[in-house]
Specification:
Layout lengths: L3 E5 L1 H10 L6 H10 L4 E5 L9 H13 L4 E5 L3 H10 L3 E4 L18 H17 L4 E6 L3 H7 L6 E5 L1 H8 L5 H16 L3 E5 L8 H5 L5 E4 L1 H10 L1 H14 L3
Parallel strand pairs: 1-2, 1-8, 2-3, 3-4, 4-5, 5-6, 6-7, 7-8
Helix pairs in contact: 2-3, 2-11, 4-5, 10-11
The protein binds pyridoxine-5'-phosphate.
């Protein structure tokens, strides 16, 4: 089985928006990523459009289609964004919580909160009814109670939030409790016949223990890849991830 690498290119757009120029190009970033081993491109269309713009969604999707790979559109459940998703027909959608003030997605969806659960349930229904064959992943904490609630929804995968794990790893702290939590979550997700994905905050080093333990079939990684690309070039960094992932393919 091939472990899938989703390259999140939001921060190419962050750099572009910082100056209001039309470079660096997200289309070129998608091409470089796909040519060097990415299995999909991930972009997050935020309500405040701080990085990815509506027109980027269409342009990047044309590229992923040309390479025969999926576009994974990360998004909140705001009705306007749901409508754009429907018009864009991505192959995958990852539903995430979204707050305007946050620097980045700060945690998984709180499905234990009734109003959040209903909002996500409605978004899943609407997206599934209007986008042919779309697959939905839910960005969640590795928490058994939240996972039980998630399995009541019409979705296909969980993307487990690895942000806290990644921070502990970078600080040299004990990551064992996270590996245990992820293993328990994986057991539940696989038993429910959903895909077990991961994302947030990961680096070439912090992804390795997760690969060693064979915890996830897909990883979505962005910030570190784009940051490291400043020194090594995007293609080289993506290729390093591809080579690492391939060491663990069975
Ligand atoms: N997965 C989800 C659901 C995210 O919100 C993000 C951040 O946009 C990522 C993966 C990628 O995280 P990072 O950019 O920290 O690698």
């Amino acid at each position: 089985m091939t472990i899938r690498l989703g390259v999140n290119i939001d921060h190419v757009a962050t750099l572009r928006q910082q100056r209001g120029e039309d470079y660096p190009s997200v289309v070129e970033a998608a091409v470089h990523s796909l040519q060097n081993g990415a299995d999909q491109i991930t972009i997050h269309l935020r309500e405040d459009r701080r990085h990815i713009q509506d027109t980027d969604v269409e342009a990047v999707h044309l590229v992923t289609k040309r390479y025969g790979k999926p576009l994974n559109l990360e998004m909140g459940s705001h009705p306007e964004i749901v409508e754009i998703a429907i018009a864009s027909n991505p192959e995958w959608i990852c539903l995430v919580p979204e707050k305007r003030q946050e620097k980045t997605t700060e945690g998984g969806l709180d499905l234990l909160d009734d109003s959040t659960f209903i909002r996500i349930e409605e978004a899943c229904q609407k997206l599934k009814a209007n986008i042919k064959d779309v697959k939905i992943s839910l960005f969640l904490e590795a928490n058994p109670k939240i996972l039980e609630k998630a399995f009541m929804l019409n979705a296909d995968a969980v993307e487990v939030h690895t942000g806290e794990y990644a921070k502990k790893f970078l600080n040299g702290e004990d990551i064992t409790p996270y590996l245990q939590k992820f293993a328990a979550a994986k057991e539940m997700i696989v038993a429910n016949k959903w895909g077990c994905h991961a994302g947030h905050g990961l680096t070439l080093e912090s992804v390795e223990p997760l690969l060693e333990k064979n915890l996830f079939v897909e990883y979505n990684i962005g910030h570190w890849i784009i940051a490291q690309a400043v020194f090594d070039g995007l293609g080289t960094v993506v290729k390093k991830f591809r080579d690492k992932f391939d060491q663990f393919n069975s």
